[in-house]
Write a structure and sequence with these properties.
Strand order of the largest sheet: 3-4-5-6-7-8-9-10
Largest sheet: 8 strands, parallel, barrel
Radius of gyration: 18 Å
Strand content: 15-25%
Number of helices: 10
Structural class: alpha/beta
Oligomer: single chain
Bound molecules: phosphoenolpyruvate, manganese (II) ion
Order of helices and strands: HEEEHEHEHEHEHEHEHHEHE
Number of strands: 11
Amino acid sequence: MDTNSCNIQTDVKITVPSLVSLKKKQKTTIVKVNGVEIGGSKIVIFAGPCAVESKEQLFETAMSVKTGGGKILRGGAFKPRSSPYSLQGLEEEGLKLLSQIRKETGLPVVTEAMDARQVELVVKYADMIQVGSRNMQNYPLLKEVGMCGMPVLLKRGMMATIEEFLFAAEYILSQGNEQVVLCERGIRTFETSTRNTLDLSAVPMLKNLSHLPVIVDPSHGTGLRWMVPVMAKAAVAVGADGLIMEVHNKPEEALCDGQQSLSPDEFTNLMSDLRKVAGAVNREIL
Ligand code: PEP
Ligand code: MN
């Protein structure tokens, strides 16, 4: 057979900026969040509420995350909401609660800064700073987190291509910060039955092009509590280095994203399934 006539695509036809490129660095990057390593052989689970609501809510949720095997606590103090009338977050009071609960549970915390002016405050209280989907192309924010000396969780813009996502990460690395974790959280498509379309093919693609660790957010990726576990397992199967999931002590009372938040029991059950899936692809849950 004339192999030249076969249509075998070996190259990805996009531009990969140099600092994030795997081809250039030739080895993968491990991001360290207060002792927790992301990007090695072990898969790291981030979990917690969408928003910090109260001390009791955060403490109870954090304890169930810890007992279930989560390694990093998530929770928003500054919330990017589609409506200005929805909960905007507890701001500095929320950050203080996060740092207090970190002391009580020993879990490092990740939380979002929505604006370059919030970075300094978030750095004071958190272990990792999140740039949300709506801000993936907020270049002043990307530059600021690039200079902040703290690991960054960069979420894919809901309408961003893989190339745009990598260029956003490049902004952070160009300021001297290589401690960046990429997060696939679903993109906008014509589909309306799920909140977003979780692009799991982004995981092998990003890992093929970049040395940065890649995690998946099946909560925002689907918007549906019942679908979170199955997509979480699929994410592990396609090679994700971690998962970030919304868990709430009382999802039915959550002030934000309760419909996609797992209960503590659902989280615990999922963790045991995830261990099996990880084993099947020669990985382990940290
Ligand atoms: C979040 O993780 O709290 C969040 C708002 O997600 P996203 O930026 O992906 O919408
Ligand atoms: Mn949320």
